[in-house]
Fold this sequence. Notes:
The chain has 323 residues and is an alpha+beta fold. Helices cover 30% and strands 28% of the residues.
Amino acid sequence: MSELNAQGSKLISLLADGEFHSGEKIGLMLGVSRTSVNNYIKALQEIGLDIYKVTGKGYCSATPLSLLDQSLIQNISGFNSVHVVQVLESTNKYLLDKIDHLENGQTCIAEYQTAGRGRRGRHWVSPFASHLYFSMYWRLEAGIEKASGLSLLVGIAVVNALEKMDVQGVQLKWPNDLYYQGKKLAGILIELNAQASDVCHSVIGIGINVRMPDHQGKLIDQPWVDLNSIAGKTIDRNQLSGLLIKELHTLLADYEEKGLSAFLPRWFELDCFLDKQVNLIVADKVQGGICRGINEQGALLLEIDKEIKPYIGGEISLRLANN
């Protein structure tokens, strides 16, 4: 199911309270038969919603759902170009498909992605109403050269927004990940549409683990952490979305004017591998060295035999040397 119809959306809103609702009541609300109600319930279960059915009581969500609220996010951010969708393939694809008709800063946020993905096309686990699946369109007037440090700038914006919610200790891993105490919290996926000597259209995708259900966490093949466990409380995704939009607008405007150099001190504060022994994996080759941060172009600086070399672009992965 790549899109959720109006009845499905109404049913989710009804079940969000975590209380039981009879099949008869649901059928009357949706204007459908009891058989159709059962089909809608099955469709919601297929996108990861844990819904109980108890004879004589009806249906309920296993846990109450705190749903995204488009108007609230717009009020918090101060920007109206926000579109909340319950189910779609991916927020990045949603904007890429409309890229010729978007205004700068247009944002799409989803409750669920049927084909969420990370860097190199990796699958991104996307349980319903649990995490933040977020994409923003940004037009880089200076062209594609400005895009080289974009994921680094976006990482700083995410940390800034989290700190405004009293979430402390999140660090950045070059080029596009956020970590907390050695575990992955979030990822960034930048997709570009540009030609040489022309403006660069960018779609900035951000996925943040907010509340990871145990059964979904078992599908992830690396150490992970979510915001609720870091903060010791329930993180409001609407507040996080609004603050993130506001932070991105501010930092992206500064980035276009000043470049990445203005943000280097902040990156060095947050770099989780700074001055550590690392392995840089380039294609099928492994290069060891000491991480010395980044330069003004967003390249990783690797010290090898007391000589510092920049690395950027292509299929590059960074790991601690003992991992």
